[in-house]
Amino acid sequence: MATVEVDQDLCVGDEICAAMEPEIFEMRDDGLAYVVDGQEEVDGDMVAAAREAADACPVDAIIVEE
Ligand code: F3S
C-alpha cells in the first residue's frame, strides 16, 4: 500500500506518467497530471508502477509514500 500524489506546482505536463501508467495518472484540461479519481492509494503491483513513473518524471513531481 502506498500513497501517490502529483505536485502540480512542479509538474510541467510531460505526460510520461500518464502514458506509462494511465490507471494511476491522468492529464486534465490544465495540462497537468493528476492521480485518477479515488486512486490516491495504490496496492500491489501498482506501487512499483507508481515508483517507475515517479522515477521517469523529469521534474520529480510525483510523490510515492509507503
Ligand atoms: Fe507532470 Fe511529471 Fe507526469 S511533469 S505530466 S508529473 S511525468
TrEMBL record:
Needed cofactors:
[4Fe-4S] cluster
> This protein's superkingdom?
Archaea
Q: Which UniProt keywords apply?
A: Electron transport, Iron, Iron-sulfur, Metal-binding, Transport
Statement: the UniProt record of this protein carries the keyword Nucleotide-binding: no
Report whether Transport shows up as a keyword of the record.
yes
Q: Which PANTHER family match?
A: FERREDOXIN
| Name assigned to this protein | Ferredoxin
At the highest ranks, the source species' classification is:
Archaea, Methanobacteriati, Methanobacteriota, Stenosarchaea group, Halobacteria
